[in-house]
Amino acid sequence: MKKESIRAYAVITLGCVIYAVAFDWFYVPNDLTCGGLTGVAQIINRYIPALTVGAQLLVMNIPLYLLGFKRFGAAFLVRSLYAMVLSSVLVDAVAALHTFAAMDKLLACLYGGVLLGIGCGLINHEESNTGGTELVSWLLKHRLPQLSLGSVMLCLDLAVIVGYAAVFRNLNNALYGGVALFVCSKVVDLLVYGGNTGKLAHIISAKENEIADALLERGIGVTKLRAIGAYTNTERPILLCAVRRREIVMVKRIVKELDPDAFFIVSDTSEVLGEGFGEYKPNGL
Is the N or C terminus of the chain more exposed, i.e. has fewer CB atoms within 10 Å? Predict the structure, then answer.
């Protein structure tokens, strides 16, 4: 097995362990739901205790993985099946080994959301998932790439949480679950897309050549765009450069030193792909 595959499975394993611990530590003893098929399994488990959450997840995920196999191929299927089986087994194993005590629900939903998000994020980062709404989110994102994985998961899981509140007639727990879900979705996006986020700078200056040279000397790519001022009707280039968040301070300093009167626009980018940044993967995230 290649080193990359070994590393990927090691990360997936770590993510599954964190996922199981988070679920059994923060969600189960505090009657919180994380939505998705897990939330559905929790509802069924309340009425039929013999049907454990882990076992239900294994059964309910089979049709979804068949769809995922057709869309993403065998490599995806193998990794995802590994993550799904391992996380399901670990959920039941951790519950059997130790019973966690209930805690303050606000702390449970905040820390549980963070920890569960870390687990899911690590798994998703390696182009794998634990099934359920994660897999549905993958399938939807493949058709609607403009959506973030965390946002799709958030919408799907919120629907399950609403159902959870209706079944158990416990609005407070559902609201806490919604908070945990929001935190979890943000952590997932941070881990999946965080390495490719950055800043996009548009610089309009009479000293565009000096600024461009200074940025290029520091290894920052610059593109010149042709533009015409509406008021003066004269052509003036716009410098466009994508940088990492930590580099934007240096860019600002360079522009300020060379042309204090420069017009400078900085915006956030959720993802930057290409040389020096992330790599585009057609079947990935």
Answer: N
Choose which CATH entry (3.40.50.20, 3.30.70.120, 3.40.50.261, 3.40.50.450) describes domain 197-269: 3.30.70.120
Alpha-carbon span 59 to 66, nearest angstrom: 12
What per-residue string of b and e applies to 1-23 under the rule 16 or more CB within 10 Å gives b? eeeeeeebbeebbebbbbbbbbb
0.85 exceeded by the pTM? no
pLDDT bin (cut points 50, 70, 90) of residue 56 is confident
Which residues are paired to 224 by β-bridges? 239
**265 phi/psi in degrees, rounded to 5:** -115, 125
3-state secondary structure of 269: strand
Do 241 and 266 meet the contact criterion of CB atoms below 8 Å apart?
A: no
Break the chain down into helix, strand, coil percent, rounded to 5. 65, 10, 25
Within the chain, which residue ranges are assigned CATH 3.30.70.120?
Answer: 197-269
